[in-house]
Design goal:
- By secondary structure, the chain is α/β, with parallel strands linked by helices.
- Helices cover 49% and strands 15% of the residues.
- The protein is built from 9 helices and 8 strands.
- It has helices at residues 20-31, 38-51, 58-67, 93-103, 106-119, 132-136, 150-163, 170-186, 208-219; strands at residues 9-13, 34-37, 70-73, 78-81, 84-85, 125-129, 142-147, 199-202.
- It has a 5-stranded parallel sheet. A 3-stranded antiparallel sheet has the order 3-4-5, covered by helices on one side.
- The protein has one domain (13-205): P-loop containing nucleotide triphosphate hydrolases (Rossmann fold, 3-Layer(aba) Sandwich).
- The longest helix has 17 residues, at 170-186.
- The protein binds cytidine-5'-monophosphate (C5P).
- Cytidine-5'-monophosphate binds next to helix 2, helix 4 and helix 8.
């Protein structure tokens, strides 16, 4: 159990639609922690690639990533790429389709991971993504692996996209998630996998608040 006043690090991983961002955001609010959405950073890099038309030119993209600045505001709700707010741009279907192929490039991961470790250097943070428990913060105080059934994850993503007026179908969303999961779990560098010492939480059929309360209880505050 962590004592009051200690600056904890909570690392959380899981596949697309497992509820990581919503849960982590709420835990951050409840415990007064910094929230780090690591996926947003790979998405911002994808926006950078689209802007410079370097989606397939990784040598050029790596150079651009080394020179770019990615910052957050409003405790992770807003993300800026070279001072421009790209919070909406990072959620487009085009970015969804491209991001996993860009995130698998080792040189890009090295840059982004270094940045994430700097953000979390003083603790007091909940960070979520695909390799937070295994690579970015392997010594985190708490490690959580969130999961949910494919059907439920697709339904959640579909509802989210509908609320953004994105014209799509449940089947398209399910296929997109399956393809992305397959790429994220089978890549050579930092694939998505549960850390051995992570607490596994299946969020299927659970409300956000139930999962949040469970994690807050684990942290012991
Ligand atoms: O979490 P989110 O769905 O926004 O992540 C988008 C993509 O970014 C993932 O599908 C994955 O390819 C990549 N990612 C990653 N490592 C992380 C977080 C996200 O490779 N820590």
């Amino acid at each position: 159990m962590v004592k009051l006043g200690e600056r904890v690090t909570i690392a959380m991983d899981g596949p697309a639609g497992s509820g990581k961002s919503t849960v982590a955001r709420k835990v951050a609010e409840k415990l007064g922690l910094l929230y780090l959405d690591s996926g947003a950073m790979y998405r911002a890099v994808t926006v950078l690639a689209i802007q410079h038309k370097t989606q397939t030119n990784m040598v050029k993209l790596i150079e651009l990533v080394k020179a770019c600045e990615i910052t957050f505001d409003d405790n992770g709700k807003k993300i800026f790429l070279n001072s421009a707010d790209v919070s909406d741009q990072i959620r487009t279907p085009e970015v969804n389709r491209l991001v996993a192929d860009i995130a698998k490039v080792p040189e890009i991961r090295t840059e982004i991971v270094r940045h994430q470790q700097k953000i979390g250097a003083d603790g007091g943070i909940i960070a979520e993504g695909r390799d937070l428990t295994t690579v970015v913060f392997p010594h985190a105080d708490f490690k959580i692996y969130l999961d949910a059934s494919m059907q439920e994850r697709a339904k959640r993503r579909f509802a989210e996209l509908q609320s953004q007026n994105v014209d799509t179908t449940l089947e398209t969303v399910e296929n997109e998630i399956k393809t992305r999961d397959e790429k994220d779990t089978s890549r050579e560098h930092s694939p998505l996998r549960p850390a051995e010492d992570a607490t596994r939480v299946d969020t299927t059929g659970k409300t956000i608040d139930e999962v949040v309360d469970f994690i807050v209880k684990i942290v012991g505050k």
